Model the fold of this input.
Amino acid sequence: MTEYFELLDEEGNRIGKVKEREAVHRDGDLHGGSHIWVIRDVKPDGHFQVLLQRRRYDKDSFPGCLDVSSAGHMTQGETFLSTALRELEEELGIRTTEEHLQYLFKQLVGGDFVFYGRPFKNYEVNFVYLLKTEVSLETLSYQREEIEELVWMDSEEILAEIQAGNPEFCIWEEEYGRFLEAAKKVL
Done:
């Protein structure tokens, strides 16, 4: 099934153009996405556990890497919020409502990469959300076409791995730092 993305400006507003997913990543067009950080086990000292997904080894970008709990592109006709709710349910089997999602911030991310010998340009406006929930890995029915495995990790351990440049992680260091800062303010 072909996916179509609405192209956006840097504020996340639609500019009236729609393109097929592959063309967007070929040409480097700005498009939308939602990132949802799922956390649990919040301690009085501010530490908590973060759910990470290991991307499937056959994904078109960042294969086999540990990534944000749930993330996805905003397809034609969606909003950032509807994308977040859809992705949580599709990828992790978590059904929730907007009242349980905490909006944290908007960001611009992007870069030019090469996967499987082909250029891959990814430039996005993301809305970043937080979901605090007490779920175990055994109760999550994750999307096997997208995700290799799920792991819970300590929030500070993840930061140390990202800062050390561990290639097993494909998490934007700036996003993760902003997420930690914002999460500690709302917890």
